[in-house]
Amino acid sequence: MVEEHMHEVTHQVAHAEEGLKELANWITLVNEYRHGSVAHFLHHWENVVFSLTAALFLVGISFLAARKKLLIPTPLQNALELAVESLDNLVTGIIGPRGRAYVPFIGTLFLYILIQNFMGLVPGMKSPTSSLNTTAALAICVFGYVQGIGIKENGILGYVDHLMGNPRDLVGWIMTPLNLPLHILEELIKPLSLSLRLFGNVLGEDSLIAAFVGLGILALSFMKSPIGLPLQFPFLLLSLLLGTIQALVFSLLTTIYISLMLPQEAHEH
Amino acid sequence: MNLSLQEILTQAGAFILLVWVLKKMAWKPLLKLLDERRERILKGFEEIEHTKQEVQKLKADYEHSRAHIEEEAHRKLQESVDEGKRISRELQEEARREARAVLEKAKEDISLEVAKAKVTLRGEIADLTLAATERLLKEKLDETKDKEIVLDFIEDLEKLK
Asked: Which residue of A has its CA nearest to B37?
């Protein structure tokens, strides 16, 4: 049943992607004008190339900002410290002091998604998060990380106990055959919902921008203008806001999933 | 576009690598730096508080010392005034005693001089009496002459006074 549902979702997603057009990026142009193995390779791995660009950008910024570690920081170090401290406060605010151990993962996730979301706003670039492959990869990483934490913090038996709904009385044990598949399903649905939410939102934003760019060009086409009206401008601002919100939602939900997976006593902190 | 397991795994691998790199390069050092800075700021505040308390204590000590010094100065001043008064009183007493002694001595001297004068006077009176008598005996001629002689004698006596 789950497989059927997954197949249906994939089908719907493929259908949605076919119907929606995004703006051309530099790889599209390379593929358009230079037919060769490199162009084909780049086009095939388009999302990976842009994801790696985002990753390299983050690594570069981190290297430049954190190499000196000054007590009185430079503006770049200050900006990165602000991001680090804000994310640290966000995670430890939800999980408690133990959450500090998960800040690098959640923080990187947030910054990585944020940069990828914003990449679609740069001419010639593309948001890799508008592809389900990218968001699914991130969601799978989150899934693996959360389950890993569950096993590490609770032990194998504790982890299974958690999946069974922590039965402690007769009613709890009677409910176990129902609770166990439900919890397993819940854990599987979490990455699915994470990836689909992010993918859908970013694809929607990028497609909206592309549609209004097309409309702007169309509006001035009667006078053969080389540029169109910037009708997409309000949606660029909207994308800035929604891109941030989506990155935050993804990271926040990851934090909550980790928090729910931790033992009860750690929770109460 | 369909789901590509190859691409998903590549993306996942890239992300895991990114987490690892950023954890080593940025997260750990920056979180440590932030903790150290927070610690330093807290320590700074604690030191400021401690210094404030020390300043308060020093101020209180200073106030106490000043009050003590003022009290001591006042006491010393009072003692000096009292001492001055005592010395003044003693000096007055001494001066009075000396004056009294001088007066007594003067009185004694006067008495002595008076006594001496009396003795001298008595001698002179005796001499004068003898002289007058002698003159009277030599010049006993008439009553008028006697009278004149006595009157001269009396005048001489008055002069002697």
From this structure: A71
